[in-house]
Structure formats: structure tokens, C-alpha cells
Amino acid sequence: MSAADLQARLDAIVDRMRAAEDWGAVADYIPELARVPLRQFAIAVAPAEGGVAAAGDADVPFSIQSVSKIFALAIALGRAGDQLWNRVGREPSGSAFNSIVQLEHEQGRPRNPFINAGAIVTTDEILKGRAPRDALAEILGFVRAAAEDDDIYINDRVAQSENHHGHRNYALAHFLRAFDNLANAPELVLGTYFHQCAIEMTTRQLALAGRFLVGAPGLPRLVSTARIRRLNALMLTCGQYDGSGEFAFRVGLPAKSGVGGGILAIVPGRASVAVFSPGLDGYGNSLLGTVAMEQLARQMDWSVF
Ligand code: DON
């Protein structure tokens, strides 16, 4: 497909989304995110051949939140290798992203690295043996290298806002520590985790940052081919929490969502796709972002199935 045809499709999706009646609801449990204007929508595609096509509010920075968990997982696997799987599983949870119930029955080993409990363990692994500042420098450095763009920063206000209200995450971290599955003090791990989640990117930057997961020649190569496959497998099965089955059914692509309203999806060998719309559905995934991904995947005949 020509660049002009792709651009026309993205523009048409933006027009349809902007006419939507239901925009979902912004996350309100992090006060700084509750202030984000609801009616925003953006989509961007970075094809394997190069370049990026974007439409809508694609240059508005937003809080990537849980989309950061994919970058953190890639780094933690680079540091710990398969040892990481002793601490965190690889199964969908079927529970909300911030649920605590399974931890008690499953001896403090979170189901997967994308639910909050699993992501806290992943960040703890990155933090091992060094200060939060250094761990965050590595995470931010990885994201910038993936996007090939140094103009990406952490929003400290968002991190502080979550820290003041993150009681569930504190509960998860202390619970993990009680099961001996947290090497560092909960305050240090969560300070790092909240800042990692508070990375801000535009939709265009996020699509570019996802290229390392596409697995095609000429794209930023930050992890091995075998690891690319496994990261994509986890995104497909766990990337949208208890909405992962529904997302696979409707969109058919590995993806990772965040409560800031971003979703990063991968078309293996073909493209990296990012959407942003801060209104969420009941699972905490972008409502219009999911609709847009569904429309684009169908139009482009993109699916892993
Ligand atoms: O830990 C939290 O609750 C947030 N920092 C991130 C959660 C999130 O993005 C879940 N995604 N849908």
C-alpha cells in the first residue's frame, strides 16, 4: 500500500472516531490523569519498510503507563534471562490489572509481567544492585533507542500523583515482599515503577518505539528474534489484562495497553501501530483505541491468525 493510501485510511479512522458518541472515561484513580481532556484521538503506523504515518492528535504527549511494561520486560529479560520466570508467570490472569487475589493462592508469584504485581517484580529485577535513578536511566534510554528519538521524558507530577494515591500498588508490593518475591524495599521499587509508568510519548513516537518488536530487517534491533516472538506471545495473551481474549478476538494482534489511553500493537514482520484516546473501557483499555485498532486491522487484513 502506498504511503498516501495508508494516510487516507488513518485520516478516515480519525474522522469516524471523532464522531463517536461514547468516548469512555479517563482513569480517575491517578488525579493527574483524571485532568486529561477526554476527547482526544490519535493513530500512527510505522511500517517495516520505514517512515511513519500519523493522524489526529498524534503529536500530543500522553502518559504511557502500562505500555511501559513491555519495555521493562525486555530489559529485565536482558538482565535476568529465563531466571525471571521463577519470579513471575506467563499465564493470563483473567483478573483486573491491579487485582491482588491470585497472589495469596499462588505463593506471591504473579500470573504474568503485565498485571501490576508482575510488573512490580519486573521493575524490582531491573533495580537489583543499583539506585532507582540508574534503573530509570536504563528504561528511558531503552525507550529512546527504540524510538530513535531523545525527546522523550518522564512526567514527575504524574509519578508523584500516583505515589500519593497508589495504595493498591503498595499493598501488592508489600504482599510480594512478604512472599520473598521483592529484592528491594517496596518504596524504592514503586518509586521506580511509578516513574517508569509516567514516561510521556506522542502516538507517533510510540509507533516508532514499537518497531523493535516487529522483527523485520532494518528496524532497531534491541532484543533477539526468539525474544521478539515471546514478547509478542505475552502481549497477545496478557497485554490487555482480562480484556485480552476479547482484544485477540476483535483485533487479532499482540498489543499492550495503558490507563493513559495508549495501545501499542504489533503486526509481526509488517508494522508497529499506536493509538491514543484517554477514555477507557471497563477493563482499563482505551475504548476508541480498541475500536480503531479493530477497524485498521480489518481494512489492512492484518492478523496473526
Ligand atoms: O500501576 C498502575 O495502576 C498504573 N501506573 C498503570 C496501570 C495501567 O496502565 C493499566 N492499564 N490499563
Automatic annotation (TrEMBL):
Keywords: Acetylation, Hydrolase. Its EC number is 3.5.1.2. SUPFAM superfamilies: beta-lactamase/transpeptidase-like. It comes from the Bacteria. GO terms for biological process: glutamate biosynthetic process; L-glutamine catabolic process. It catalyses: L-glutamine + H2O = L-glutamate + NH4(+). It holds the Pfam family Glutaminase. Substrate binds at residues 66, 116, 162, 169, 193, 241, 259. InterPro entries: Beta-lactam/transpept-like (IPR012338), Glutaminase (IPR015868). One of its GO terms (molecular function) is glutaminase activity. Belongs to the glutaminase family. Homotetramer. HAMAP family: Glutaminase. This is Glutaminase. The lineage of its organism: Bacteria, Pseudomonadati, Pseudomonadota, Alphaproteobacteria, Rhodobacterales.
